[in-house]
Specification:
binds 3-isopropylmalic acid, single chain, 10-stranded mixed β-sheet, 12 helices, binds manganese (II) ion, alpha/beta, two-stranded antiparallel ribbon
Length: about 350
Amino acid sequence: MLPLLRERGLVTYRIGVIGGDGIGPEVIAEALKVVDATGIAYEPVTYDLGGTRYLATGEVLSDETIEGLRSMDAILLGAIGTPDVPPGVLERGLLLRLRFELDLFVNLRPFLAPAGPLNDGVDMIVIRENTEGTYLGEGGFLRKGTPQEVATQGSLNTRFGVERCIRYAFELAESRPRKHLTLVHKTNVLTFAGDLWQRTFDAVATEFPSVTTGYDHVDAACIHFVQRPERYDVIVTDNLFGDILTDLGGAIAGGIGRAASGNLNPSRTGPSLFEPVHGSAPDIAGTGAADPRAAILCAGMLLEFLGETKAAQRVASAVNESDDVLGSTAEIGSRIAERV
Ligand code: IPM
Ligand code: MN
């Protein structure tokens, strides 16, 4: 039914739009310009969230707002963060809370770049576990503020959480031409969490005989990212390693201004959320210097996840073939929109 309705343009998606802080609203405006150019019918539902709003109202994210967002078909987020808000308030209270509450257990981050002086090109997708590990917030202080102070910060890994993420990564690898999946961890030191990841990986691998597998320690993976990224097709890794590796991924594939991510709920019990890997860059906000490509690629990933494959491909190609496009944030957005 849905494909038929789609073909006739009869589906109107409800897209939650969170511009956020700094360059967030600027790049999201360009992403929506490009979605408009695809002709896909959608209704944007704007949510005023982020550091600016927190400083003005004292509210980070209400239960009511979460319920509103939960009813969307998808969510597009620019960037969150203001220098005057202490670290953790918005990250934990907003971004991570959304990932946890909407059960966005896969963080999918693709990297694509032609061959360059350092390597033979990049074409990989990092699947970062998105609801567990050190990000869960397990830990605390003892004797805080005294010379005998103790702080712990644990990493929580459940068989259930690890397995569903690894299974998603295998399914993705199976759908790609190379069909190769690498587990990245630090099993030589993190002998509990690493062991659970490795055993789960090996067990799920038996269900995907056509997928070849590999393993790299995360420190070695950093070298390979820079010197031979062609080694990788799909990577699956834990939350913190994935956070760090994907900034490096951005750096080797066209810069962080092109790195897009999808926080996915593959079970589709609710909306998925798409956001650039970059932050709010308050230093360049309002100058027109922000590259909107990451946000535009996010909009493409959002369309792909909704099943609007053709529109998604048009957006992705327009961005990937836009190296000749220079100018301000709005000029780049308009030029890419013209080519969609
Ligand atoms: C990212 C960001 C977030 C993370 C922060 C802002 C909470 O760095 O999406 O990679 O650490 O996941
Ligand atoms: Mn990060």
